[in-house]
Amino acid sequence: QVQLVESGGGLVQAGDSLKLSCAASGRTFSRYAMGWFRQAPGKEREFVAAISWSGGSTHYADFVKGRFTISKNNAKNTAYLQINSLKPEDTADYYCAAAVARTVVVPSTRAEYDYWGQGTQVTVSS
Q: Which tens digits make up the pLDDT trace of 51-69?
């Protein structure tokens, strides 16, 4: 069992940066691939980024376009999502998720993830 707690969200202005954190409980964090998803009001939850259990592989949604960076510190049981040049359309609740290591190294669909956090809200004003 893994429990995930996101933090780092808030109200920011367009062009600002944020670093979201996802703290995980348990001693097997290093065995999990981690992902970030987001859900804007009235929209489906969508994939943002994923990182393999080792941190050696990453995968991003097309809309990221170099503005987002996912990372993972296994020693601290924490995953991160750095977001630069924030835009109003980035406004959403951001969720981290953990996936037991399987064939897919960097899973990108909701069904591939086993554990979810409660989310952290990001609001970007124009």
A: 999 889 999 999 998 999 9
